[in-house]
Amino acid sequence: MQLGQRLAQMQVMSPQMQQSLAFLQAPILDLRSMINKELQGNPVLEELSPDEAAPAENGDATAEARGEPPEIQPPEGTQVDPTAESNGEPVDAFSKELERLAEMSEEWRDHFSASQVAPIARPSEDDDERRQFMMESITSGISLQDLLMEQSKMSDLDLEEMTVAEEIIGNIDDNGFLQVTVEELAEATGCDREVVEETLTVIRSFEPAGVGARDLRECLLLQLERQGKIDSDEYKLVEHHMDALGRRRFPEIAKALGVENEEVQGIAKNISHLDPRPGSAFQSSPEQYVMPEVFVNWKDDQWEVTSNREEVPQLRISNSYKDLLTEARDSKDVREYIRAKIRDGNFLIKSIHQRQDTILNIAREIVARQEAFMEEGVSALKPMTMSEIAEKVEVHETTVSRAVSGKYIKTPQGLFEMRFFFTGAIATGSGKGVSNTSVKKMIADLVEDENKAKPLSDEQLVKMLSENDIKIARRTVAKYRGELGLLSSSMRRVY
User: Fold this and answer.
1) pLDDT value of position 368
2) Nearest residue to 400 (alpha-carbon basis) of 421, 374, 424, 370
3) DSSP per residue over 122-152, as a string?
């Protein structure tokens, strides 16, 4: 081993570049939180009020309403005396500092004027009411364990049985199934087996029906008992032929029960209405709210693509820093601090505008290539890659990937994630490509229209797709069928 020096080139992203990429990748709701954090840390930034952000009557927004930096002028009453000194520094240095800030502000003003940012329309009263209704409608649910504990407290269980009930409820998973045996419960609580079984019977009488079962078969039987169907064919089928039911062996079940195949299918349909996971309705899942970044509408005989600027805070450089500069004219450190904050604020405003413009340009190109989808739906979706969009928009492919990550676009066909439009291609006989999403839609339509008594096999689906000039392998059909949640032909058969 030895020490040595080596010269190498490395690409290191500056903090400003990292911030710009973070803004680009963040969804619109996260972007608002990030901007609010920057507002708290930068005293020269301020957010425009709704009245200031609204366009003027003539349709033109002011420079401040567009989020542009205000012009920088020396504070009123400032007199420059080249011969005077303050704290060992000529006073005209303060004037030069203001000139440098004015030049920097003018550079940013030229940039924002060239970007031609559209004015922001104020939300209507109906929009505000809908948003308020949505926020007030958010409720917090109760867990399955809490529900069972409430019911146990209202039951006739004594102190010993309540101890066992708490142990049982604590070992019921989110789907409502008991994960331990009666012997393990008796050992954990120090109670007799009979006490544990009696307490378990009480808990199984709670809502939801089927809770506390050890497996799916027992869960379905408990629900049928609750419905008073102990003597029914449904109960007999679940109790004695659960394995054959799972494999849809209807002729075998019909022979065992002494009924016709059609009757078995009706029994199986009734069983399918039972809940195989009674506790799933109480599972707490994080609320996910999405907001479209882009809107697509048909206007003036063409597709209009607009950005959702209403939800993005509009920022500007505050005039208050002029007063700060006046108060700090004798402190070089304070002036440098304010200058740095103005530079950071201008870069932040630029990053936000660049983010909006990048997403809008990508969305426009997506709509231009997917006009058929806007009119006809998923069946008309064309294959498209990020590299194609990146080349057209003149950005890197990774920029497109960041720009569409977690972003949604509102189209006449519904709300879609922007990544949805990037799909692979399936070759056709004519040499053209068709989106694999469109192929999945075709498979789903063929299965839906098939003869249920003679469902289409994967090989038959391949032949039917080939008749539509789509070349695809059988294993690919099986893969797409699985992704669509469609069973095999033998499992789909109706007798």
Assistant:
1) 92
2) 421
3) PPPHHHHHHHHHHHHT------HHHHHHHHH
pLDDT band at 244 (very low <50, low <70, confident <90, very high): confident
How far apart, in whole angstroms, are the C-alpha atoms of residue 14 and residue 306? Answer: 31
* 6, two tokens: 């080596």
Point out the domain boundary residue: 282, 302, 330: 282
Which of 195-199, 331-335, 337-341 shows the lowest per-residue confidence on average (mean pLDDT)?
331-335
268 vs 121, higher pLDDT? 268
> How many domains, in total, are found in the chain?
2
CB 182 within 8 A of CB 196: yes
- Establish if 243 belongs to a structural domain: yes
Residue 304 per-residue DSSP state:
E
Would 57 be classed as within a structural domain? no
Residue burial 15-28, b: 16+ Cβ < 10 Å; e: rest: eeeebbbebbbbeb
Q: Provide the pLDDT confidence category of residue 171 given band limits of 50, 70 and 90.
A: very high
pTM higher than 0.85: no
Q: Tell me the per-residue pLDDT of 114-145, one tens digit each, with 9 for 90 and over.
A: 544 444 445 556 656 655 555 554 455 678 88
Burial class of residue 460 (count of CB atoms within 10 Å of its CB; 0-12, 13-18, 19+):
middle
In a domain, 204, yes or no: yes
Single out the residue in 282, 311, 328 at which a domain terminates: 282
The DSSP bridge pattern shows strands 292-299 and 302-307 to be antiparallel
Question: Is a pLDDT exceeding 90 seen at residue 222?
Answer: yes
Q: Name the β-bridge partners of 77.
A: none
Please tell me the distance from the alpha carbon of residue 213 to that of residue 223, in angstroms, as a whole number: 10
162 touches 172 (CB < 8 A): no
The helix/strand/coil state of 479 is helix
Contact call for residues 370 and 384 (beta carbons, < 8 A): yes
Supply the pLDDT for residue 256: 86
Q: Is 392 a residue whose pLDDT tops 60?
A: yes
In a domain, 194, yes or no: yes
Beta bridge partners of 306: 295
Handedness of CA 128, 130, 131, 132 (dihedral sign): positive
Task: Give the Å distances, CA to CA, from 381 to 424, 436, 462.
Answer: 11, 9, 20
List all residues 6 or more positions away from 254 whose beta carbon is below 8 Å from its beta carbon: 260, 261, 263, 264
Determine the structural domain holding residue 166 and report its residue range. 144-282
